[in-house]
Amino acid sequence: MIIRRSNERGYADHGWLRSFHTFSFANYVDRNHMGFRALRVINEDRVTGGHGFGAHSHRDMEIISYVLEGEMEHKDNMGNGEVMRPGDVQRMSAGTGVLHSEFNHSKENGLHFLQIWIEPKQLGIKPSYEQKAFPIAERQGQWRLVASQEGREGSVSVNQDVNLYAGLFSEGDQADVPTSRHAWLHVVNGEMEVNGETLSAGDAAAFTPDESISLTGKQAGEVLLFDLA
């Protein structure tokens, strides 16, 4: 197990946007943390009311947005216009090219979300978009598959051999980790004991195939698990 602590991440403060970068991103360059397998970006973003990311383009990247607090408004040149709330998962396959914007839907309240980039398995596909809600009851005390290559079990589909799970764990909850492949475990909030180590909000850990992973809740919180080829 290799631990990546929250305070080791890159950080950018643009006034309206405060962002922590788990891996190299924009002006934050760290040759030791360029990504993990196909996982390329985990940005923890906080956006003030009435602000956001204006129209910008992407290509050949799988982009997943996961709202933690507040509401995020999405628009793109494929004709999609949605508002995301906590528990919603949005997947955008940029493929040959897509133009989109992301704004805090509220003028007063803050927006807190994770932006995740995954390198695609196939390049040059037709751009597409998908958004689904995953209620608390489906994540409480258990792992809920929220993204997968085939869109299994009602998850959003991703153009890569990856399974993304979300789980909400209370103090004392014990969770078997559903992977025997490479794994990246990201603590969204709360505090978890993972293989005897305490991981807090923003901390993460990387695992090699067949490495046993034991997770116990220490302080109620949420965890994302990436199961990667």
UniProtKB/TrEMBL annotation:
Residues 145-228 form the Quercetin 2,3-dioxygenase C-terminal cupin domain. It comes from the Bacteria. Residues 9-118 form the Pirin N-terminal domain. SUPFAM superfamilies: RmlC-like cupins. InterPro entries: Pirin (IPR012093), Pirin_N_dom (IPR003829), Quercetinase_C (IPR041602), RmlC-like_jellyroll (IPR014710), RmlC_Cupin_sf (IPR011051). Belongs to the pirin family. This is Pirin family protein. It comes from Vreelandella neptunia. The lineage of its organism: Bacteria, Pseudomonadati, Pseudomonadota, Gammaproteobacteria, Oceanospirillales.
